[in-house]
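sorry to bug you again but im stuck and you know this stuff better than me. below you get a single protein, a line of residues and a line of whole numbers that encode the local backbone shape. mainly i need to know what kind of three dimensional shape the backbone takes. anything you notice is useful, everything is just below:

***
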Amino acid sequence: LAERWFAEQPEGLNVVRDDQGLASFVFHVMHPTGSPMEDRDPVTRAVLDHATRQGPARPGEQIYIGRFMAGRRGYQSDPYAVLAGPVSSLIEWVSRPLAWSFVVVADQATWGPIFDYIAFTRQLEVEFDGRTHVVYGNDWRRLPVGTWLDLMSEREHSGATGPPPASRLRPPPLDRARFAAAVRTALPDLRRPGRLAASPLMGSSLAAAPSGASAERLRATIEGAIGCLGDQPLEAVLRRTFVRGAPTQEAAAEVLGLPFSTYRRHLAKAVEQLTDVLWAVEIGEVRLSSPGEQLSS
């Protein structure tokens, strides 16, 4: 079965070779990419259905599935497989805008303790081809890569294992529509830290900081994104209306020297573009390092 998928989707294949030839391989599926496995492989289909129930990928996000892994001598406990699996997976986990990472294993005795250590939780079991396939996974929207790496650093010293501590988890992610609504609600509260702290965006990556989510960080992220719009009139409308806090929209239009109807059109367009930028930050497509800096992919 695996050999058939390798021929159809070779870009998902990673191998280790030694002086005797192929020593081990890892094969992953990235969704959505149009892979035939999404419909034709029962295990991949079960994993994607599970993700849909638990927290579907949002626009711009992907789902990683480590589907096959084996070594020549010891199947999934082969030392080369134990090397190739984590290394190839880690590269994908830290370099893509992922919603979920899942890894499918049949050798639970070898891999169960490993996934406990890296805080990937047991998600489901799938019976197929005469084997029980156990699927471990992590929702990166709730346990982001940076937080996970910090946790791994701590566990290197403490030897702790098990699910991620609840204190490290963000709330369930907002979908695109609720995110846009939260941005519109947050903008008038940029100068009101107490009210901003109650925003649903406090559970998003926009508010995240090494010391924990804060209204101050949320405001800095929003203001930094305003500075990256690349359209001076739209940026000016947002700054005068929300950052500097004009008493009314009519007053903001007057200061900007715009007819009120023109001001309202600019404001609607500016909020829409700002939401697009903030969404790209939220799903990990771009990064805003600090207020005022350019966004980077």
